[in-house]
Amino acid sequence: MDIAIVGAGAATVALLDTLAATAAQPGDLTVFEPSAHPWRGRPYGPDLDTVLVNAPPALMSIRHHDRGHYAAWLGERAPAHLDGLLGQPLVPRALYGHYLRHTAETALAALRERGWHVRVHAARVTAMAASADRLRLRAEDGHVHQADHVALCVGAGTPHDHYGLGAAPGFVADPYPLARTLEQVPAESSVAVIGSGLTAVDVVVSLAARGHTGPIRLVSRSGLLPHVWQRPLDHRHGT
Fold first, then answer.
1. How far apart are CA 146 and CA 17, in angstroms?
2. Which segments within the chain are labelled E, that is strand?
3. What is the distance between the alpha carbons of residues 94 and 198, in angstroms, rounded to a whole number?
4. How far apart are the C-alpha atoms of 17 and 191, rounded to whole Å?
5. What is the DSSP letter of 23?
6. CA–CA distance, 187 with 214 (Å, rounded to integer)
7. Using CA atoms, how far apart are residues 196 and 179, in angstroms rounded to an integer?
8. Cα–Cα dist 184/176, whole Å
9. Is residue 216 classed as helix, strand or coil in its secondary structure?
10. How many Å apart are CA 182 and CA 133, to the nearest integer?
11. Cβ(52)–Cβ(91) under 8 Å?
């Protein structure tokens, strides 16, 4: 069996981890990923420490049947990232990216030990078509690959420029990694963020951590901020 996976983010890590645990027979596995930081996906690459995972460890395990897998990997690192209000660790996303990479590399090593031929091809897939009873993929470097099964794990992609601002000075279509984009923002400048979701929160928190002094405005149709995780409170009512 020849399997091809397009993309190497968190979904692929989960697939590899499951494949390593359940595949009965060896086969060929090729992962296509052009990024210099495979296994992390767009959200979990190297970035500022202010860009945090926004959920507790039990919800971030790569294994759906083992909610403690990620927490076990964190181990002694967890107390250093304990959130006082939530009572659980919220780590920088780059650190979670290390977890994803470790899980992927462990799964690939297990597959190789069981006779799988594993390859990571550092190129973007540009075309795919059915050929007889197989699927034919073409990469941007000209490489052609045929597979019995193909999994598309390409994520949501980068943000669209809905308002045609791409050529406007000072406009940033994709803020990540914030370590790169915020270097271009003067501390005293006025900043407008389109949207009020988690990305907007990342931008505002990271600007504040860098000592930004200019006004920051979130422009949103709903005006709603993301919901807040908090520690459950023990309320007792008298009779």
1. 23
2. 2-6, 28-32, 117-121, 125-131, 134-139, 144-147, 149-152, 191-194, 216-219
3. 16
4. 42
5. -
6. 6
7. 20
8. 13
9. strand
10. 49
11. yes
- Averaged pLDDT, groups of 10, the chain, 239 residues long: 95 96 93 95 92 92 94 95 90 97 97 96 96 91 95 88 91 93 95 93 95 96 83 63
**Distance between terminal CA atoms of the chain?**
66
Q: Tell me, rounded to whole angstroms, the distance of Cα 227 from its chain centroid.
A: 20
pLDDT tens profile 92-132:
999 999 999 999 999 999 999 999 999 999 999 999 999 77
pTM metric for this prediction: 0.89
Per the rule left: phi > 0, alpha: psi between -120 and 50, beta: everything else, 95 is alpha
Return the residue matching tokens 């945090």: 52
* Distance separating alpha carbons of residues 45 and 9, to the nearest angstrom: 10
Q: Which two tokens stand for residue 197?
A: 């979701």
Q: Name the token pair of 133.
A: 């009873």
